[in-house]
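> call design_seq(struct)
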């Protein structure tokens, strides 16, 4: 059955019943007996391409990237293809998204006394990378895109602000134009964390290519993966050299260093990881195409529902379609929706994969690696308050949305079931 026929059939079913089909949560027949699975991405696409890359590294007996000439290193080849895909001059492969964030902070010269603005809803690493530099994290609210609200940034800028961190969460680009304008107006650096949106774009520009630096995680729960891995991209040769030095204990091996010594760490990627990621970057657009097609089927199937309220999508063409999220008037309605959808065999979840950082007790208490850390030792650091008072809107928005996760390998039947369940349940929660 094609989608049109399916929708017509669904509509007919809805019309013919007394009022509406009985919800599974009330004893009716569920849409599915086998619950729709949770999404898994890159590993589902592993095949002989990754296998061959790994075998070649084994046979070479040179798993260290710099044991290989530049044109033979799989890590270097991966970096070249990654930079081309993201339309940046440089890409630097590192061991994780967290390592990429730490390296970005060092490249951007963030240090004690500096402030970095980040969304209140994001991953721990964003906060930790700022703290590791001795700088002060300043939280901004999110909007209904689940990303940093451009309207909540400017009043948080102080003379100490150095960087705005825009994080593109769950496949959805942050609203980049106003954020770019703010960064320009106040002469701030812009760091994009694209860990949950690898390959997504905003107004045709790949995420990560608009700010001064973009970073990505290639950990297993992200788009493409070797289990762990990270990338930093930039088009600024100065930032690139600082990043290279920081990630490689200050050495710059491929051409003479222009910069002075910097006490860097070791975040170098190895050739096994580079080989798997080289195979995976070549599949990125296939994976994204698959998930976008599946998400479009669900969006198209529910768009006409009365009063339907989608997550805000600053660029619907640029998002990945990681999840199809609907908004409700309050937590109570979302809870009823979630309970009913689970009973139908199409489980939904609230926004996931991030944390409301300001209400994590240890963050609210400003716990650092050791006491007397520079981040909180200044008057400003002492006076800043975290906790729920600094992000009420973030907490509210996250409590009111729920989404069906979309996988790139979902079948047409899977997406039809998602549509059928939403069409069955949503009108019982949000009336026309
Ligand atoms: C996953 C993630 C990271 C950290 O990446 P790792 O590779 O796990 O270190 C950073 N930021 C965001 C938004 C993430 O989702």
């Amino acid at each position: 059955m094609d989608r049109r026929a399916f929708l017509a059939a669904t509509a007919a079913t809805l019309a013919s019943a007394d009022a509406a089909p009985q919800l599974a949560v009330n004893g009716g027949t569920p849409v599915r007996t086998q619950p729709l699975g949770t999404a898994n991405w890159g590993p589902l696409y592993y095949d002989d391409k990754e296998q061959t890359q790994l075998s070649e590294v084994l046979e070479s007996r040179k798993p260290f990237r710099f044991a290989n000439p530049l044109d033979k290193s799989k890590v270097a080849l991966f970096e070249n293809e990654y930079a081309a895909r993201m339309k940046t001059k440089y890409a630097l492969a590192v061991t994780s998204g967290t390592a990429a964030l730490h390296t970005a902070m060092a490249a951007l010269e963030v240090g004690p006394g500096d402030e970095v603005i980040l969304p209140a809803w994001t991953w721990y690493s964003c906060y930790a990378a700022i703290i590791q530099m001795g700088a002060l994290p300043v939280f901004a609210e999110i909007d209904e895109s689940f990303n940093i609200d451009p309207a909540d940034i400017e009043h948080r800028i102080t003379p100490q602000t150095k960087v705005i961190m825009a994080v593109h969460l769950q496949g959805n680009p942050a609203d980049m134009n106003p954020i770019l304008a703010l960064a320009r107006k106040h002469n701030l650096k812009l760091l994009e964390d694209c860990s949950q949106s690898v390959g997504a774009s905003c107004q045709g520009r790949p995420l990560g290519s608009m700010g001064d630096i973009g970073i990505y995680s290639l950990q297993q729960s992200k788009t493409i993966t070797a289990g762990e891995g990270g990338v930093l991209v930039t088009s600024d040769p100065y930032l690139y050299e600082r990043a290279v030095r920081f990630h490689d204990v200050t050495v710059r091996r491929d051409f003479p260093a222009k910069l002075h010594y910097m006490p860097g760490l070791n975040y170098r990627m190895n050739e096994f990881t580079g080989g798997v990621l080289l195979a995976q970057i070549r599949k990125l657009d296939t994976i994204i195409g698959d998930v976008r097609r599946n998400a479009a089927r669900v969006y198209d199937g529910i768009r006409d529902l009365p009063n339907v309220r989608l997550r805000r999508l600053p660029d619907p063409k640029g998002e990945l379609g990681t999840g199809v999220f609907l908004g409700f008037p309050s937590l109570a309605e979302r809870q009823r929706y979630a309970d009913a959808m689970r009973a139908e065999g199409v489980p939904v979840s609230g926004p996931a994969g991030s944390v409301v950082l300001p209400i994590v007790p240890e963050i609210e208490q400003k716990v650092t690696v050791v006491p007397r850390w520079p981040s909180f030792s200044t008057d400003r650091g002492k006076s800043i308050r975290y906790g729920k008072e600094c992000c009420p809107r973030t907490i509210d928005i996250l409590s009111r949305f729920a989404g069906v996760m979309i996988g790139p390998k979902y079948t047409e039947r899977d997406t039809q079931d998602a549509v059928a369940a939403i069409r069955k349940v949503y009108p019982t929660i949000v009336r026309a």
